[in-house]
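Researcher: Last one for today. Full complex below.
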Amino acid sequence: MVLVWDRPVTDEQRPSRRRLPAGDIARVSVFAALIAVLGLPGTLNVFGDVVPITLQTLGVMLAGAILGTWRSALAVAVLLVLVAAGLPLLAGGRGGLGVFAGPSAGFLIGWLPGAALTGWIVERGGRAPGTMRMLAACLAGGVGVVYLCGIPVQALVTGLSLGKTALLSATFLPGDLIKAVLATVVARGTQRAYPDAIPAVHRERLRAGGR
Amino acid sequence: MKGLTGAYVPGGSPLHRLPAGVKLAGLAVCCTALLLLRPPAALAVAAVVVAALYAVSGVGVTAAWAQVRPVRWFALALFGVQLVVADLSGAVSSTLRVVLAIALAGLVTLTTRTADLMAFLERCLAPARFAGLDPYRLSLLLSLTLRSVPVVAELATRVREAQRARGVERSPRAFAVPLVVGALRHADALGEALAARGLDD
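Model: Here's the assembly. Have a good evening.
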C-alpha cells in the first residue's frame, strides 16, 4: 500500500520508483561493499600477482544467489565503477583503470554476466531452490561464465594462443571449484537463517507489502 | 577510512588540470594505438612518451612504481613464455604493450581526483534517465556503497571475534554465514530507513 500525504505521484516519478526502490538501492550497495570486503583478508598468490585468487568471486556468486539476476549484476557494476574511479576495492588493494587494461580485465568484466546467470538459475528454483541447483548456478555463473569472458581477453592482452591461456587459467580451477561449493554452502546457510535471502521469497514479500 | 582515498597524487601539472573526460578519452585512444603498434622500435618510442608523460605529471617514482608493481611477475612470466614460443622482438613488444597500457591507465588514476572521476561518471549516467533510471538514485547507490564498505568491514571484524570466541576459527562457513546474514539485515534496515525518509514517495 502506498500512502502519499502531501503530493500527488506524477507519471514521471512512477517508472524510476518502480525500477530502483530504496530497498533495492540498500541491498545492492551493501552487497557491492561485501564483495569489496571479501577481498580484504588478502590474496592467495599462486602465480605472483597475475590473476590473484581471492574470496571476491565468492562474493560475486553469493550476490547472484541472494540478490537475483539484475540486482546482483548491478552490485557488481557499482563495484567495478568505483574501482575504475580509482578506489582500491579489489583484492590486495588493487584499483584504478590499470586493472581494466591488465590481463585479468576479462575476469572482472565476467563477474557481471556471471552474477546475473547465477541469480537467474537460482530464481528459476522458486521459493525453495535446492542445493544441487545452487551448486549448478554457482558453477555455471561464478566459474563457467567468468572463465569464458576472462580467457579470451587474457589471450588478447598477452598475445598467447587461446589454448595456452586456457591451460594457464586451469591452475585456478581447483580454487574456484572449492569457492563454488563454499558459496553454495554459505548461501544455503544464509537462506535458512534469513528466508528473505531467497530472491523469490523476497519478491513475494515486497509484492505482499505493496512496496 | 584509510585506503579509501584512492591513489590520487596532488599536483598542478598540465595533466592534473586536464578534465577527467579528456583524460579517459585519451587513454582509450592510446590503449587502442598500443594494440596496433607491432615493431619493437615503435613500442620503444611509446615507452619514452609514457615516461615523459610521467615526468610531466611529477607524481614521483614511488607512485609510478606502485601502479606497475602488481604486474611485475606477470610481465616476467609473459616475457619468458613469449621468448620460448616466439622470438626476442615479439617477447619485448608484447610485454611492453601490457606494461605501457597499465602505466598509462595508472597515470590517469594518479592525476585525477576520485571525486572528479565520479562527477564525470555521473554526467555519463545522465542518459540513463531515458531508460527510466534516475541518475540521482544511481549516484546515491555509488555513495551508499562507499559508506557501506567500512560498515561491512567492521561487521567482518566482529564476526571474526565471535568466531574466535566460539573456537571455530578455521571454519569458513562460521565466518561467511554470519557475515552475509548480518550484511543483509543491515541492508534491509537501511532500505527501510531510506523509505521512511521518503525516498520512495
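Confidence is low (pLDDT under 50) at residues 1-17, 42-50 of chain A. The longest helix of chain A spans residues 131-158.
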